[in-house]
Amino acid sequence: MIGVWVTFVILAILNSAFIQKLDTFNTYARGLESIGVIVLTIFAFNKLLAELDNREPTYHPVFWINAGYLFYFAGSMVVFILSNYFLSDNNLLLVAWGIHAILLAIMYCFISLGLWQLRRQ
């Protein structure tokens, strides 16, 4: 798993150096990061559900925190990938980053639910 993330860092650096310069939004690296986090959250859900002694995942803080990350990165992946296209139109840009802000707020709410659930245990 560490090799995958080291490869990602190397690819992100190469992307910034040769493909997408620093004056543009790094859509390839952000999109690849989103895919990586989505895959990791799916693995975490699979592990959580396999190890549960009861079938109530909502009672576990990891469920809520993981759900927040999955929701945010799955929703924001489109904004990350298309962000350079959105730069050509200010109205689209405002809508896209407004959606991003809403997804970020939802992620923080899910993380808060997880931390609150942790406190109740």
UniProtKB/TrEMBL annotation:
<keyword id="KW-1133">Transmembrane helix</keyword>
<keyword id="KW-0472">Membrane</keyword>
<protein>
    <submittedName>
        <fullName>Uncharacterized protein</fullName>
    </submittedName>
</protein>
<keyword id="KW-0812">Transmembrane</keyword>
<feature type="transmembrane region" description="Helical">
    <location>
        <begin position="62"/>
        <end position="86"/>
    </location>
</feature>
<feature type="transmembrane region" description="Helical">
    <location>
        <begin position="92"/>
        <end position="116"/>
    </location>
</feature>
<feature type="transmembrane region" description="Helical">
    <location>
        <begin position="29"/>
        <end position="50"/>
    </location>
</feature>
